[in-house]
Description:
Layout: H1 2-19, H2 24-38, H3 43-76, H4 81-91, H5 95-109, H6 115-132, H7 137-151, H8 158-167, H9 171-207, H10 229-232, H11 236-240, H12 242-257, H13 266-281, H14 285-319, H15 321-332, H16 335-338, H17 341-356, H18 358-375, H19 380-393, H20 402-409, H21 417-441
Helix pairs in contact: 1-2, 1-15, 1-18, 2-14, 3-8, 3-13, 3-14, 4-5, 4-6, 5-6, 5-7, 5-9, 6-7, 7-9, 7-19, 7-21, 8-14, 8-18, 8-19, 9-21, 12-13, 15-18, 17-18, 17-19, 17-21, 18-19, 19-21
Amino acid sequence: MLSAVGFIMIALIIILLIKEKMSPVAVMIIVPTIAAFVVGTGIDDLSQYVSGGMDSIKSNAFMFIFSILFFGIMSDVGVFDALVERLAAWASDNPIKITVATAIIAIIAHLDGSAAATLLITVPAMLPIYKKLGMRPQTLLTIIAVSVGVMNLLPWGGPTVRAATVIGMDPTELWTHLIPLQVVGVISALSVAVILGLREKRHAVRNASVELGDEVNINAKEELPSRHYEEKGLDERLKKLRPVNIILTIAIIGLLMANSVIDLPSYYVFMLGTVIAMVINFPNLKDQNEQIKKHAASALTIVATIMAAGVMVGIMEGTGMLDAMAETIIGIIPEALGKFTHIIFGVLGAPLGMIVGTDAYFYGILPPIASVGDAFGISHLNTAIAMLIGKNSILLLSPMVPATWLGLGLFDDKISIRDHIKATFGWCYAISILMLIVAVVLGIITI
């Protein structure tokens, strides 16, 4: 009974999320609540289960709120702009430099964990250069997708927060296990950029509107539709504060990386960073309130989803549905394959993640698979890491992710979703498999 209701509940959640019939918040509150009553849960027990679920996610919700505020402020005051413009100018007329600069810009721009912001920074900065040299726009989008797939493992990135929520872990603690893999991923993304740059060099020689080696004369302030200071209305005071803001950003990331040594809650680190950033850059109370209002909407959607996931996980665990589902799956899986459950789903993570979308993947598939792995001696952490790697790698390829359509739209719909997947999936999937192998070799994922 418990197992059957659990599977029906998961199937309904995934179907409703894929078909976008209801918001994720509504789906993950209403469906589990109905399921709880179906299996005979009383009001008092339900209240206990929900409270337990909310207790497990509150620190993640707090961290996400303040990480969005912090990086939003840093972006507004121009922390990333000057570097983006200099990299674009440095790339000049060399296709390999241009593709490498694209990857570096996307990697830096994605420090805030927002795929949409990364696209809005990188595409306007680099697309004019690609057009000038006759380089293919698809190469630009492929490099951004590869870079985002690696950088989205950051603890304030949506997928990592979701995975941490499901297994009841602090996202920063989860990230500390992912750092070596992220380093491998960044190197891989830069390597892909070099390979694609070599391809574009051959392509550009045949098709460029200017000869390679001629002066392209790209002025980041005049020709590129970049987010420079005048466009943003930033005054001279904020320009002078840029070095201070860069140091503050590095310090906050450093504190998060040193989490195992300096035991500060990640949400408190971002709280400190946010209030320091507001006091330094916007000493006026009105301006501080405007900053909070400006970025609150971005934070609210994901935080509401995380809280709804807390309700769902609390009900699934409290009623015993999760354990019952795991036992059913365990009875089906051959004993010889059981200990490889996390590896199997790590390999399947990319194609599976493209089909079901982020919320359905982490809130619908990860919980029962983590429980199955647990029965075979696989820790929830191992399962979460394996499934995270695969899903993150194809973030900007999935039709279920709104940022994918934003990226295609920035190219005036000249790139189709089919062509984008065809050109990019192989690179992203290869990096995810490489990271999975490295994780096993380094003992981050155990077998």
